[in-house]
Structure formats: C-alpha cells, structure tokens
C-alpha cells in the first residue's frame, strides 16, 4: 500500500540511525574538547614552570625584556630563553643574568637568523 496513512518501518530505523550518528558525533566532539583542554592545561603548566625558572636566573630588567620580546618575536624569545637556560646549566652564565647579557645573546641569535639580501638594479 502506498497511501499517506501507511506506516513505514524504514522511517523508524532511519531515525534510530540518525540518533546513533548524532550520539557518536557528540561523543567524538566531547573527546576532542577534553583533549584540547588537557593540552592547554599542560602548556600553561609548562609556561608557569619556565617563568619560575626565568625569575630565578634573570634579573627583573632582563625578565621584562624577554617578556616584551615574546609579544613581538616569540621565536627569538624562545631561542634566547633556551640559550640562557643552557648556558646557566653549563655554568657559563651565573645567575642573576643581567639585561646587558640578555641583549648580547639576543643580538647574536638575531644576527644568525637574519638573511642577507642583495638587490640589483638594472638601469636602462
């Protein structure tokens, strides 16, 4: 029979399948959100630990310079922090590291990363 009043079991199965798909999708989204939240918490924890280390080995002016640099050139700031920590661990720098020392490290790191460009003009 193909009237409007006929009941079709396939509609019920389709609805159940759709509900199952929705449930799975929601569960997957929850898992992804939880994983992202955990990653953010771990990153915040690592950043807090790093800041505690920096407070212990840098004088306030040097720490301020590093924090300001993170806003403008985060890659350079990260490289400087890793270099400073390595030098302190190796005994080549003695805490508290002052701002002038940090400036010198930044100059050396920045000069390594700069590219030299040569521009040639052809006059006609």
UniProtKB/TrEMBL annotation:
**GO molecular function terms here?**
DNA binding
Q: Which Gene3D superfamilies does this chain map to?
A: PDCD5-like (1.10.8.140)
Show the GO cellular component annotation of the record: cytosol
Keyword Nucleotide-binding appears in the UniProt entry: no
> What sections of the sequence does the record tag as coiled-coil?
16-50
**UniProt keyword annotations, A-Z:** Coiled coil, DNA-binding
Asked whether the UniProt record includes Coiled coil among its keywords, one would answer yes
Q: Which NCBIfam families match?
A: PRK04239.1
Write the protein's name.
Answer: DNA-binding protein ASAC_1126
Q: Which organism is it from?
A: Acidilobus saccharovorans (strain DSM 16705 / JCM 18335 / VKM B-2471 / 345-15)
Q: Identify the taxonomic lineage of the organism of origin.
A: Archaea, Thermoproteota, Thermoprotei, Acidilobales, Acidilobaceae
């Amino acid at each position: 029979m193909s009237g409007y009043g006929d009941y079709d079991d396939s509609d019920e199965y389709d609805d159940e399948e759709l509900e199952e798909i929705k449930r799975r999708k929601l569960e997957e989204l929850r898992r992804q959100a939880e994983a992202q939240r955990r990653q953010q918490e771990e990153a915040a924890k690592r950043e807090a630990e790093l800041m505690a280390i920096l407070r212990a080995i840098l004088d306030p002016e040097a720490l301020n310079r590093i924090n300001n640099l993170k806003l403008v050139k985060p890659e350079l700031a990260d490289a400087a922090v890793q270099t400073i920590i390595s030098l302190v661990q190796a005994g080549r720098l003695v805490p508290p590291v002052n701002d002038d020392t940090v400036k010198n490290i930044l100059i050396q790191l920045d000069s390594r990363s700069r590219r030299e460009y040569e521009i040639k003009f052809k006059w006609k």
